[in-house]
Amino acid sequence: MSKNERVRKAFDATRALKLPDEEVKLVLKHLLKLFDNNWEPIEAEDYRALIDAYFELKEDKGKNGCEDAVVEHGESGKLPKRLRLPDPEDQVSFRKGSTSQVSSPKEKKKRIVSLQQDVTFLNKKDSSSSGYSNSCKKPQQQHVTCEKKNSFQIIPDITKGTENVEISLVDVTGKKELPKFTYMRDNIIYQHAYVHISLARLADEDCCSGCSGDCLSVPIPCACAQETGGEFAYTSEGQLREEFLKACMSMKLEPQEHHFVYCLDCPLERSKRKCKGHMVRKFIKECWRKCGCNMQCGNRVVQRGITCKLQVFWTREGKGWGVKTLRDLPKGTFVCEYVGEILTNTELFVRNSKGSGDERHTYPVTLDADWGSEKILKDEEALCLDATFCGNVARFINHRCFDASLIDIPVEVETPDRHYYHLALFTTRDVKASEELTWDYGIDFDDHEHPIKAFKCSCGSKFCRDKKRSAVQVGL
């Protein structure tokens, strides 16, 4: 649908309520900026967001005298405070154990935009009856009754300005408590995890100190491409090469066809049973500080951070919060890294035993992609990522069995040992704007002895591995 057609339909909806086009135009323009030109939340529920925003404006304008309640035109600064676009320096902070709070020192402006009223419209057949139920009378308009309901909640940027792009959060139901967590752009050690980052540990053969500019522009791949068979994992457009992505997806979809290694003393199975095996996965090795290339090198995709326009939203399928893309994403596009606290498996066990109850929004990730290279791992070397209390947008990405739109790939950046690595999420296919992003967590729903307990799957995939729940869904 073209932009002009969308605008026409929006005006048709507001004209049915006798709302002036010029006044609606200002509010519509503001909402498009707020939603980054994404029409879906505006069009949802018969343009509820647009109509709510209009009456919020009318309410604020009418506070000092209903007879003079006239909408001003011009910049967003003339909008009521709750509807203004936030200043770039304003930040939102999620803190553990508390509701979301504004972190601006003087709280001059709020970055949480809450449309406080849900409006119920009662069109009267008697055209002589006019005005608003809040006593603000305006001639030649149908009667409108405003009933106070749940808020329409918007957070323009949950990243607190730490990412390259803003990531918004939208709850069109207005019924859900905003998630409690601290947004972090990078992984951080919780307590005892051993992550040794040092230039001295990077041997000359592990970097490309002789390179300059963009490593992908030279005819012969540099030393950093050795990990991926002498060819870089990325194309010049910044996406994964088709062959590399295909190989990674095969490991995810057909694990039985690939090589597994077994720990003599598995960190996950200590004092219980033998190691069930860990797949030897493909890694991407990116250039880093000791390399001679610059930060725009084509082999520095993950470390440059998020560039996709994403939005956190409340799903309608019982999955809680989810993440959608606001732009079309080609196959092989880097979306985001899974960021969280770096814990040892013992620390994770202790944390789980204390119980986070219903507060858990995430599923911990075990960094076991190279555990088999050593016979015995010390506890501080057997690491995992937990984004329950600290993390980035990836903590909201929902699981989907088998046919998810994202795949996780280990990425080596600043340390040559693989006790610690980055877990990057790439698209497995072309993804359309407004489509929810999903990722297969790799959960074995039948393994009831695993230290990380599986949840009840609601992915909706016909390939769902949660057999009991799938049987209920199909009525078996």
From TrEMBL:
tRNA processing found in the keyword field: no
- SET domain spans which residues? 308-442
* Region feature Disordered, mapped onto this chain: 73-111
Q: Does the keyword Hydrolase apply?
A: no
Q: Which Pfam families match?
A: Pre-SET, SET, WIYLD
> What are the protein's UniProt keywords?
Chromosome
- Location(s) in or outside the cell: Chromosome
Q: What is its main location?
A: nucleus
* Residue intervals of the Pre-SET domain: 211-305
User: PANTHER family from the xrefs?
Assistant: HISTONE-LYSINE N-METHYLTRANSFERASE SUVR4, INACTIVE HISTONE-LYSINE N-METHYLTRANSFERASE SUVR1-RELATED
Report what the protein is called.
Histone-lysine N-methyltransferase SUVR4
Q: Which species does the entry assign this protein to?
A: Hibiscus sabdariffa (roselle)
At the highest ranks, the source species' classification is: Eukaryota, Viridiplantae, Streptophyta, Embryophyta, Tracheophyta
